[in-house]
Structure prediction request, 85 residues.
Amino acid sequence: MRTGSEPATARSALRARFWLSLWGLVWAVFGTVAFALTGRTGWAVACGVLWLVATVDLTVVLRHLRQGPHYQPGRDVPPYPPPRE
Prediction:
């Protein structure tokens, strides 16, 4: 059911973000190492920056997951009520 307050009360699929961040982290590490070994410094730096971004995102996702059902509710937690105006 749409209430019109979805942008303010939206929930993130944190488990999906966790696995996507982990996948990106693995590929960024692989790319950094592979490009560094082949002497392509620019691409190695780009992959290193992506590695940093993926690490920060993974850290934020893990923090939110550990904070409990406010950030990652289960199926038994009802949606937030619409904001009162």
Notes: The mean pLDDT is 83. Residues 41-66 form the longest helix (26 residues). The chain is about 65% helix and 0% strand.
